[in-house]
Amino acid sequence: LRKQARQLENELDLKLVSFSKLCTSSGRDGRRDRYSSDTTPLLNGSSQDRMFETMAVEIEQLLGKLTGINDKMAEYTNSAGVPSLNAALMHTLQRHRDILQDYTHEFHKTKANFLAIRERENLLGSVRKDIESYKSGSGVNNRRTELFLKEHEHLRNSDRLIEETISIAMATKENMTSQRGVLKSIQSKMNTLANRFPAVNSLIQRINLRKRRDSLILGGVVGVCTILLLLYAFH
């Protein structure tokens, strides 16, 4: 069983190397074709896909055979007739299981990378077709319609801005009219006060004259009384 396992592992190793080279060369050819031509498919679909599928089936078959051999070794290790060799056999079995796990992981990883590359390149091909159709007559018409729509939107925005400007101007006019009314009322009040000011000024002058006369009378009385007191004191 160990001999069969090692033989299958060697075959798997060679198959995986060839499988990895196929996927890697497909990716490089796809990138080179992408830069060289826009109409050339990135993957040579017919031949490379057949090679990929054939090698994938072969590797899956080898993995299945190796899994069966590992299962047989596990059954033999667990049998009751080899108790003294269980430790060494378990170590050998674990080693072959690890190798099987590594090969399985590498196969699935390489396969997934190839499928991802093919899916991406198919997507890019469909995008190129859309671009080419867009560049055709219908694409030009769509572009012209899009430009007309953008221009119409710009005109609508301009009309909206003009309407806002007119509304602001009307509001400013109303405010200025109201301020002019307020100024007129203030001016009329000022004229009324100016007309009333001469009467107020004459009244103030009369009050000042009366105060001055009262002050003179009071001063004369005080002076007479002072003179009389002095005459009385020296007499």
UniProtKB/TrEMBL annotation:
The chain crosses the membrane at residues 216-234. GO terms for cellular component: cis-Golgi network; Golgi medial cisterna; Golgi membrane; SNARE complex. It comes from the Eukaryota. Its main location: Golgi. It is a single-pass type IV membrane protein. Belongs to the GOSR1 family. Involved in transport from the ER to the Golgi apparatus as well as in intra-Golgi transport. It belongs to a super-family of proteins called t-SNAREs or soluble NSF (N-ethylmaleimide-sensitive factor) attachment protein receptor. May play a protective role against hydrogen peroxide induced cytotoxicity under glutathione depleted conditions in neuronal cells by regulating the intracellular ROS levels via inhibition of p38 MAPK (MAPK11, MAPK12, MAPK13 and MAPK14). Participates in docking and fusion stage of ER to cis-Golgi transport. This is Golgi SNAP receptor complex member 1. The lineage of its organism: Eukaryota, Metazoa, Chordata, Craniata, Vertebrata. The gene is Gosr1.
